[in-house]
Amino acid sequence: MPTFAFVLALLSASTAVAQQQQPTASPRSAPSAKPDPNEIVCQTWRETGSRLRTNRYCATRAQWAEHIRQERQYVERAQTNRTY
Questions:
Q1: Based on the structure, what is the number of domains in the chain?
Q2: Domain membership flag for residue 64
Q3: Per-residue pLDDT of the chain (84 residues; tens, 9 = 90+)
Q4: In this structure, is residue 53 part of a structural domain?
């Protein structure tokens, strides 16, 4: 199970990346074409509490999608199982 800080970093990074990415049509591909799931995508973000240190993670689009799915499931489970 990933550490809580790592989970928060990935969730915030995935949200920031999703907000920054604008769908653009490539001249080589049709607008309805899906991105290649085997394409490697790297994301870089700053470490919390540091102005200089950054972390870079590279994975395929399929791995990023699976990771995001697992993190959402983890957060949903944590929210559902809260005790007061």
A1: 1
A2: yes
A3: 444 455 555 555 555 544 455 445 455 555 668 889 999 999 998 888 888 899 999 999 999 999 999 999 999 999 998 877
A4: yes
What element of type H or E holds 56?
A: strand 54-60
Q: Does 82 fall in a domain?
A: yes
Provide the domain limits for residue 56. 37-84
Asked if 71 and 11 count as a contact pair (C-beta separation under 8 A), the reply is yes
What's at 5, amino acid-wise? A
Distances (CA, A) of 27 to 6, 20, 24, 39, 41: 37, 21, 9, 18, 20
Is 55 within the bounds of a domain? yes
Rounded to whole angstroms, how far apart are CA atoms 45 and 8? Answer: 12
